[in-house]
Amino acid sequence: MPSKSFEELRQHIQTVVLHGIPLVTLDVDGMLHTKRTTRASDIPDRLKLERLKNALREQTQNLS
Questions:
Q1: 4-10 contacts at long range (C-beta below 8 A, 24 or more positions apart)
Q2: What DSSP letter does each residue of 27-45 carry, written as one string?
Q3: For residue 36, which of 9, 58, 11, 56 has the smallest C-alpha distance?
Q4: Domain containing residue 29
């Protein structure tokens, strides 16, 4: 699987403030894009991110 370029991931950049410090990171979808590789070491991370994405989706649905 080809990796995503910075330009392709740019739309997934977000800033999160933690203890008053702004941190620039990727959103869950952006992180998932970086873990869609053939490396075995990425599989556990990808599975965790997919579970997180599903949990966030369910939480959003329950709030509406």
A1: 4/33, 4/34, 8/33, 9/33, 9/34
A2: -HHHHHHHH-SS-GGGHHH
A3: 9
A4: 6-63
Amino acid identity, position 43: I
Rg of the chain over Cα atoms, rounded to whole angstroms, equals 14
Location of structure tokens 């979808």 = 29
Indicate the number of domains in the chain: 1
User: Per-residue pLDDT tens for 16-46?
Assistant: 999 999 999 999 999 999 998 889 999 999 9
Residue 25 lies in a domain: yes
User: Is position 19 within any domain?
Assistant: yes
Task: Supply the pTM of this predicted model.
Answer: 0.79
For 61, half-sphere exposure in the C-beta direction (CA atoms, 13 angstrom radius) is 6
Q: Is position 50 within any domain?
A: yes
